[in-house]
Amino acid sequence: MENQKSTAKKVVTVIVNILIWLFIAFAVIVTILTFAAQSNSNGIPSIGGKTILTVQTSSMEPVIMQGDIIIGRKLTTKEQKTLKVGDVITFNAGDLTGDGVADINTHKIIEVNDKNGEISYVTKGENREVADETPVKSQDVICIYEGTRFAKLGRVLDYLSKPQGFLVVIVLPLVLFFLYELVAFVRKVIQVKTAGTKQITEADEELIRQKAVEEYIKAQKAAEEAPKETTETTEGQEG
Questions:
Q1: In what order do the strands lie in the sheet with 141-150?
Q2: Is 98 helix (H, G, I), strand (E, B) or coil?
Q3: Does residue 49 fall inside a structural domain?
Q4: Is the whole model's pTM more than 0.90, yes or no?
Q5: What is the extent of the structural domain holding 138?
């Protein structure tokens, strides 16, 4: 029974440790993406020539769904000018909402224009009937979408990229983890320091109890026999 409990405890410990380290790996990845986005002028995280962004609208459905995470390949200056009809690109679309912040859009190229070496692209959403009003200049193209996407994970990434989400999901659990590791370390240190001190086992406690009971019984017998001896002595003197 003791062996079964010990084995189960070890298995649970291993599983918990694996989950903790997986979370730490996830936290590191999210942290890298967050800082990569902040260091980029267009606010899109870029690592190793790949861009990671969340689709905010439904204009490309059903090819790309709103809330998906898509992976794009960053383009060189030369590649920005050699795109073709049918390519799905992410580009700087200017201030579409009037909030003073440049918006990022992902649409399909339906026409390529070349005016004296100045390349621009006419784009359109997959489910839109009309093309985008303003052609995209080649230098405003950020990346090209090559088919890699993660369905509906964009909402999670968006939440984690916000200060509140990052604090609740990443920072606080990491703090609790390190506190847990600190407590475990302190316990180990205490165990090492007390390793030379004899520990009383359950068997030792049972033996002590048995001896105490035996001593109590002996004391009781001695107390019962003492009056008899006194009485017998007195009677002998009177006789």
A1: 46-47, 50-54, 69-74, 141-150, 88-94, 103-115, 118-124, 136-137
A2: coil
A3: yes
A4: no
A5: 45-159
